[in-house]
Design a protein that fits this description.
With 418 residues, the chain is of the alpha/beta class. The protein contains 13 helices and 17 strands.
């Protein structure tokens, strides 16, 4: 894959996390707990951070949630969870930040929606938030959303468009209004005293083509870092595919400095899934590495047994389980490629291309499983303990290649390196 040239931006630092073109694209997420429920919110933030979220946003929509923020941040610090917490404000942010100065101090960044910061008093309320951000040395994200776009601005631009000899279609005016809302708000923030490098912009929509168009327009007209994401991406496969399609197109063009995948979880579902999807988008594009990648064939009539499918799942789960320790002990292990293949057609070839791979026997093939390490056949496994033996080889390979350990040698029947 040819390297992607990032769009050049200034760098905004959010609680110690740099966001901008000179730094890795940052993964962020958002809680869906009641922020006033300190214990539940702390638990979910910790889960998101453990999954790899580098920034976590919480809703601050009422006095109870604003009062809870300092306790949330303190408890996370006591747990050793250092992820920056961002406050998401709509309608009453200027009031809550003023009334709860401890909340204003505890947050790492304020998210402001210029479309609902306050009707006729919009500029006054917006400047009030910027003043508080300046007093507390906090950056801001100016987040435009087409579901809450500044109606005064949109009406003015629609009227101007209607008076043209050749009016543009309404959708194009909406896209332009979103860009104008973001840029005008950024200009107002700077006029109020906010440094240029303390501002992040976003322009959220729910359609893939709209997302691509609005960010192309916005990226061409400023050098602020941009936060990418579909708003209301949706449930399950739809949300994952739509987010992947939109974000991948922009990231491949070098647009985007921090991303979120806004998935709707099933009741009681794992909120951390949105973090893993965001990481996988970046890793699949070759932009960042987070965890070893497993290549596994989909199966066909040659692989009627589900053994290799289960083994692929077991290995993927094992890698995820081991990564917190491996990341600390074996730098670079996140770049490792593992192949778990189901028959002789592509199995040996894919295994040779991986750092470590195993080619399992397909239906009616000889019951042998050759293991390849760094492109060379290392051992052929047989019998009932193939999974355990391969995991033993995998562990020894990680220790040998990515950290202190004995050099790779021959493999005994237990899978240990001799």
């Amino acid at each position: 894959m040819p390297p992607t040239t990032r769009r050049q931006t200034v760098t905004a630092t959010i609680g110690g996390v740099p966001v901008g073109s000179g730094h890795p694209i940052v993964v962020q997420s958002m809680t869906n707990t009641d922020t006033a429920d300190v214990a539940a919110t702390v638990r979910q933030v910790a889960e998101l951070a453990s999954a790899g979220s580098e920034l976590v946003r919480v809703t601050v929509n009422n006095e109870e949630s604003a009062a809870a923020v300092p306790a949330i941040v303190d408890r996370l610090e006591d747990m050793g969870v250092a992820v920056p917490i961002i406050g998401d404000f709509h309608y009453n942010g200027h009031l809550l930040l003023a009334r709860y100065p401890d909340c204003a101090r505890a947050l790492a960044k304020y998210r402001i929606n210029p479309g609902n910061v306050g009707g006729k008093r919009r500029d006054e309320n917006f400047r009030a938030i910027i003043d508080i951000a300046l007093a507390n040395d906090k950056p801001v994200r100016i987040g435009v959303n087409w579901g809450s776009l500044d109606q005064n601005l949109l009406t003015e631009m629609m009227d101007t468009n209607a008076s043209l000899a050749s009016p543009r279609e309404a959708r194009a005016v909406v896209m332009e209004a979103m860009v104008e809302s973001a840029l005008q708000s950024a200009a107002l923030a700077e006029a109020t005293g906010m440094p240029h490098d303390r501002i992040v912009l976003s322009a959220k929509v729910s359609g893939v083509q709209d997302l691509v168009e609005v960010y192309r327009l916005l990226s061409a007209r400023c050098d602020y870092p941009l936060h990418l994401g579909l708003t209301e991406a949706g449930l399950g496969t739809k949300g994952i595919v739509a987010s992947t399609a939109g974000l991948s197109l922009l990231l491949q063009e070098g647009i985007g400095d921090t991303i979120r995948v806004s998935l709707t979880p099933v009741p009681g579902g794992d909120r951390s899934e949105e973090v893993r999807v965001a990481q996988q988008i970046l890793q699949s594009l070759g932009l960042r590495s987070f965890t070893p990648q497993v290549t596994a064939c989909p199966g066909c009539g040659r692989t009627t047994s589900t053994f290799f499918q289960q083994m692929a799942q077991d290995i993927q789960d094992y890698l995820r389980e081991r990564m917190p320790a491996w990341r600390a002990e074996h730098p670079g292990v996140e770049d490792m490629k593992v192949a778990v293949m189901g028959c002789v057609v592509n199995g040996p070839g894919e295994s040779k291309h991986a750092d470590i791979g195993i080619s399992l026997p397909g239906t009616f093939e000889d019951p042998t499983a050759p293991v390849y390490v760094d492109g060379r056949l290392l051992v052929t496994l047989r019998g009932e303990n193939i999974v355990a033996e391969f995991l033993g080889i995998l562990n020894d390979y990680v220790a040998s290649r990515y950290g202190a350990g004995e050099p790779a040698g021959q493999v005994g029947r237990t899978g240990s390196l001799l």
